[in-house]
Here is the input.
Amino acid sequence: MSTLLTDARLVTPTGVIESGWIRIADGRIGEIGSGSPPDHAKPRALHGRWVVPGFIDLHVHGGGGHAMLSEDPDEVLAAVASHRAHGTTSTLASLVSAPLDELLAALAAVRDVVRAGSMRAGLVGSHLEGPFLSPLRAGAHDPRRLLRPDRAILDRLLDAADGTLRVITLAPELPGGIDLVRHAVAAGVIVAIGHSDADLAQANAAFDAGASLVTHLFNGMRPWHHRQPGLVGAALSRPGVVSELINDGIHLHDATARVAFAAASAGRICLVTDCIATAGEGSFRLGDAEVRVDGDAVRLAGTQTLAGSTLTMDRALRRAVQVLGVPMAVAVDAASSTPARVLGIDDRVGKLEAGRGADLVVLSDALDVEAVMVGGEWTTSGRLFNR
Here is the structure.
């Protein structure tokens, strides 16, 4: 099956192509060009709409009322599907700190989904946000579920995931933390620093040991200070380190988000959602904790502590462009290309480029999602196309 999209604004690795066209065949991007395509195949004209690579979310706990922390693969798939309608074509399943048996079961459920065909389902693997976190920076994580870094426990988690644990967030300043960074990296896991009270030296020691990612920059870490820059300063000044950003206007002041984009060199910011299993306002569960959704804010019940978000990747991109003033190509890089590179799947997805998988999103002038394609097939088309 071949699809030809014309009269589109294509965001490619080399910039925006105005009045562009893109041909899709056998689930992959075949050709890209500008002006008129070189044949007379029946096109689908997009009338100036944006076409961008599918969004890739490194940090999501659930959505649509469904949680990633579940031993039921169908529950995990339902959470993934709820984000697909918002343009997320690849995601990790983020697991909050929980009793060890629950984490082992949840990792096994993610493993089963991945083994059944992750790129088709959109699930790339799991992300353990804990349990090796600092009690001083626990945020919404239940302090009773936090553990000191322990290689034997990590090995049990790795065994349950069986190669599908892609990212682990930990606090390297804890006793044994740096050793655990090395052990995880040697096992092929991406180590993110987060929920950490690390100072500058401790953060840089973790990066020297192989850590390469920072979990939701500014949140869950000691605040930036001009004489004590801490993890924030290490992250923004360290070449090669990528930082997640929750761009919902709640976790960060917009000026802070602008600083992060301005300070990090190209390809070092990832937009993430940190979305929980919310299905509207009211009370929900995040691991053992009860959380309350009020508007767009999620907090631990009875407190002002933020506990994830209701954010989706399309809204994160839209805010980056329309509120922060980030150029479209830079915002798309943060939503697609950079997270693909972090996960090592950028040879398959994350860019509009010939030969890559046809995971893409069609956006209106207002940057609302109008259609989503995964593997060359429309999964969400709204009013734009008849499926």
